[in-house]
Each structure stands twice: as C-alpha cells, then as structure tokens.
Write a structure and sequence with these properties.
Immunoglobulin-like; 25 strands; five-stranded mixed β-sheet; alpha+beta; 49% strand
Length: 415
C-alpha cells in the first residue's frame, strides 16, 4: 500500500513539470528554421521542474514518432537522451535528439510523443515514473518544383492554327501558391512564326500541393511563311516566393509537295511521283478521280509506299482519253506528325491514238480545228461532186436542149 501511495505522489509532482513543458510550446525546437527534406538536424525538448521537494534521479527522455506518416518521413537517429538529476524547483534540462528528414518527405507538420522517465529518491529507495508529452510537432518546409510535365503538340504545319494543352505538375515536396505561367513569343525569331490567339500570354495555374497537376489551353497560330525547324518558346512559372523557367519545344514541319510526270509504256500509263518537299511522306497513294477527259480501266488508286525527301517512284494505270488534255490527280500521304493529308494536282496529258477512246477523235474533229474539218470534207468530196453535177445539170437544162435541137435540124438539111 505504501508503494502505491509513493507512486501517486511522484505522478502528482511530475505532472506540473510536464504541463509546464507542454504549455511552453507544442513545437520541437530546431537548430535552424525552416527544416527541409534531406536535412539532418538536432531538435530539443526543454523540461522544467516546477514541483516542490522532488529530487529526480536518472531522468531520461525518448522521442518517438506518433504515427506512420511521421515514422516514414523522419528518422530519429538518437531516440533517447539522458538528462540526469533535476533536484531543485525551476531546475531545467534539455533533451537533445538527432533526426534526419527523408528526401521525399512532403511539406507539413509531423507529430511525435515524448516519453519522460524519472526516479524519486527517498529513504525507502527509488520509485520510477513515466509520463508522455503527446503531439510534439516538427514543421518541415518543403520545396516546390513545378515542371511542364506534358504538351499536347510537338509538331505544327505552316499556316495552321492548333489547340495547345500544357500540363504542369508539382514534383517537389512543398506547396506553391498563386502560380502563373507566362509564354514569351516577343522575340523577333518567334514573333515571325507564332501568335497566341485570343487568350493573352499569361495563364493562372492556381496553387499546387506536392504531386498535384493542372493544365492550361490556348490556340497557337503558325505563320504560313514560318521556316522549318525546332523552336523553343520560353516559359516562366512564378508565384509566391517561387520562380522557375522552362521551354515549350515545337517543331515546324516543312511543306510537303510532289512533282508528277508520265510516259506511255506498252499501252500503259506510267505516272512518276517525286517528293520535292523537305519532309518524308509515308503511305503515299495516287488516285485518278472520275473525270470527263479520261477513263481508267481497272483500279484508279495505286499505293506507292513511303517517299523520303528527294525520292521518287512510279504507279501504273490503264487510261484512255475521251477529250481534252487536263488530268486531275489526288495524292494522299501521312505527314511526320501522323496526320493524313491530301494534295490535288493537274497535269497536261497527251496520249497517242492507241490510248485514245474509239470515236473520241471523230468527236474532236467535228468540234475541233481546221485540220480535222478538212479531213472530214475530203471524206465527203465524192458525194459533194455528184450533188454539184446534178445542180449544174438542172441549171443548164434549157441550154442543152437548144443545142440538141440545132444539131438535129442540121442533120435533116444534109439529107
């Protein structure tokens, strides 16, 4: 029974000490502030004896993480400190601990419990007692790192207008507040190639805690005369006590174009296609659309494959001509950005008679130049001669009759 009474007395005496320490501060004292991820620092827990008649012997203090989050983020390298005896009223001691903040620790407040174990010495011996100071707080100040994590577009065509989506992510351990992204196209080199349409050049990102993302959208117009190449557009990200720079990398694809020529080969129409642009064209196909001047026997589309800049190849068709010389062609290809595109072409085609549609030349002769008309007139010349002789005979009929009568009268007189 006497031991229980002594233990209660010790707790009653120790409680004012612990309450005083708790009231002094809820935060651990650090050797420097703020404390950042990756730091190895010392922290202190101050204690003060405000009891009466207490003689503390072999007092020790332990610093223990209060939860899993604290245990993962902060490693207590020295978790126990001996502060010895606290013999007099207002006697003060400080427990010192060495800790390491994990490099990946997120900004925030981390809680610890402080365990104080001491002994009271009297004539009967010593009686141990332990009390806990809960929710001792260590503040870790993280460092935000805002990055341009993704862009929706990396290649644009001259003369195009493109919707651009930029995604930003806080890869750091601290929060960033009131962020803005400024896109700078003011330099002569960039201003001659790009324009941001309608939305200005400053965009709000708001606030980003560690691991959070946000995005902005805007329309980017590309000058039709923009030179081919890769452009780095400066990007500034700034906020409260934070600023960094980055770049938006955009490539301007060169204009892809094709040059066409043809020849007749064994009754076939051989069409040559050359890539005269500066970019490769993939999955190139050539189509002779339905048109009045020409007919295509069989398939009117030929796939000729990939053409790098300067390459050429051929496609073979069976073609007959109806009339005229202008042939319409459609070339389709996939550009460097993976977009399927089409180009319409017109070439002048003069086919031999072997590849002309029967009746086609006769139609042109009836509606064409003087040479064909002369040939047509020559074909009808015998018939025209007969008709003319008939007309002359009718017109001269009376004169011929009079000559006949005179000749007949002369023969009768001779008899």
């Amino acid at each position: 029974m006497s031991n229980i009474i002594k233990y209660i007395i010790v707790l009653l005496i120790l409680l004012p000490v612990l309450q005083n320490a708790s009231a002094a501060s809820e935060y651990l004292v650090t050797e420097h502030e703020p404390v950042y991820p990756g730091d190895t620092v010392f922290v202190w827990v101050p204690l003060k004896n405000i009891g009466y008649g207490a003689w503390w012997v072999d007092t020790s203090v332990r610093l223990i993480p209060a939860n899993n989050a604290t245990e993962k983020a902060i490693h207590v390298l020295d978790d126990s400190a001996v502060i010895g005896n606290m013999e007099d009223w207002n006697d003060m001691r400080t427990a010192k601990f060495k800790i390491h903040i994990d490099q990946k620790a997120v900004e925030g407040e981390y809680e610890f419990n402080v365990y104080i174990t001491t002994k009271e010495k009297d004539s009967a011996g010593t009686t141990p007692a332990t009390q806990v100071l809960e929710d001792r707080i260590l503040v870790v100040k993280g460092a935000p790192v805002i990055t341009l994590s993704n862009t929706s577009i990396d290649s644009v065509a001259p003369g195009s207008t493109n919707e651009v989506v930029l995604k930003f992510r806080n890869e750091g351990t601290g929060a960033a507040r009131n962020l803005y992204a400024d896109i700078n196209t003011a330099s002569e080199h960039l201003a001659s190639a790009f324009s941001i349409v309608g939305s200005g050049k400053r965009f709000s990102l708001g606030s980003l805690n560690p691991g959070e993302e946000t995005e902005i959208r805007f329309s980017l117009a590309v000058n039709a005369q923009a030179e081919t190449g890769v452009y780095n557009i400066p990007l500034t990200i700034s906020g409260m006590n934070y600023s960094t720079t980055d770049y938006i990398g955009i490539g301007v694809a060169g204009i892809t174009d094709f040059e066409l020529s043809y020849q007749e080969s064994g009754g076939s129409f051989l069409l040559s296609v050359a890539n005269v642009g500066v970019n490769p064209a993939r999955a190139v196909s050539v189509t002779i659309p339905t048109q009045s001047n020409f007919n295509v026997l069989g398939s009117n589309t030929q796939v000729i494959g990939n053409l790098n800049a300067g390459d050429y190849t051929s496609a073979t068709f069976q073609v007959t001509r109806n009339r005229g010389q202008d042939m319409k062609l459609l070339i389709q290809y996939t550009d460097a950005g993976g977009i399927r595109r089409s180009i319409e072409k017109n070439i002048s085609v003069k086919l031999s008679n072997l590849m002309a549609t029967p009746g086609g030349d006769q139609h042109e002769a009836m509606h064409g130049g003087g040479l064909n008309i002369s040939k047509l007139a020559a074909g009808f010349a015998p018939y025209i001669g007969v008709v003319l002789l008939g007309i002359i005979g009718i017109w001269q009929r009376k004169s011929i009759k009079d000559v006949y009568q005179r000749l007949k009268f002369q023969r009768q007189r001779r008899k």
